[in-house]
Amino acid sequence: MNTVFILSDRHNAEFAGCYGNTITRTPNMDALAETGLRFESAYCVSPICSPTRAAMMTGRYVHEIGVWDNAFTYGGDHEGWGRHFSSSGVRFATIGKLDFCPGSDCGIQESYLATHRDKLDIHSLFREEEILPRDDLFRRHLETGPTDSICAYSEDHEVAERASRWLEVERPADEPWVLFVNFNNLHRPWHPPEDLWDHYDPLVVLDELDERFTEDLSRLHPYHRIFIRHHNGERLGGETMRRALVGYHASCEVLDGHVGQVLEAIDRAGIREETMLIYASDHGGACGEHRNWDHGATYEESIRCPMILNGPDIRSGEVEASVVSMLDVFPTVCESVGSCLPRDIRGQSLLGLARGEGGVIARDVALTEYHGAGMPGSAFSVRSGRHKFVECVGERPMLFDLEEDPHEMSDLVVDSVDDPAVHRTIEQMRGILEAICDPGEIDNRVKRDQRVRRHELARTGQLYQEMWKRGYERRSDQLVPRNQEFR
Which of 64, 189, 190, 246 is placed for a possible disulfide with 143 were both Cys, Cβ 3.0 to 4.6 Å? Predict the structure, then answer.
């Protein structure tokens, strides 16, 4: 089978009709799920763009490839989809955001409208000093609001048009192919057209939001309290949060429309019966849950992703509860197009599971890593079965029972501190993590690499450019806001 992989950016799985949302209108995603298989518990490899995309495109964990945060980039130094499919005789084309190192050779045969990581988030390079609030993010939230056109999403519209042309006119007829389509419209500020804003505005009511949106900061893990301060969770009031949710709901509908354009092109080309479709997001994104306003934390809103498989012989209209990882996409696509798997790949193909083949069992473990701005130490989230365990290097861990507590309001490490069953579960989950990696060793390596990266960027002058445009003085030893506006 040929494969179309549609990847969005920062799509919280809760904001889709097929995932149970009664407000967000996503008819195209819902139709994919109605005739395909929806994964209930799919997890990103890291809840920020550069690391998760690099990991997904190489099939390896973040700690194996060293793309720690958005100040690092993937440059093709580990074999990825491009070189693998090229050497396997599979045509591979990408359209839209990649987020790799500009000018690097990643072996991709065809790349259209690609955007790369030319702006580096230098906040992650100063994690060992006091972590400051980010006023640039605060302003982006305040800018959210309606516009009189769809122009805010023009880049994604261009991607959808280019993907449609490739599918209808340019796709190869005599060799297997993979088309990777990337949409990017769910980053702040959200500027949906006025008609969509007016539709969602009365539907978002503060008093009807669940308990996550009013959680007391004192109940959060110490690292998450620092993270929330970094992303202005203490500063943004109720109406700002409500407007952000209005904008996000509406932007998800715009995204769904772009997904629909690609699906219509597949149907016009008459290739639906010979094509596997995958829809997923690189990571989630919070809109006020647990007082969080960004992706990067280890709560479900940030690390859980939508994932839908659709195509010939795929289970139709069913929901798969097994825990899966975005690392599973690479081997799934390889099996779909008949390509051998690269060595040392960490995921496993989901095709057998998606087809309902007997004896196929999901690994039911997903590891998510965060090494970026806003947290003093690395955080490793392990989801297995009903539990999610988070190892916070330098601080206490967290443990949630997601069957009993899907909103993660009760951290069992604190609320059930004397329960022997909780201690056994912690040890079991920590054993799963330590069988994969050594969290303390990795945290040391991350911080060393971030210091080295800071000095490298200082030598080239890029560090000072990035600091200045974010409102800081040009100095390499610490972040110093230029004026009161940035305090």
Answer: 189
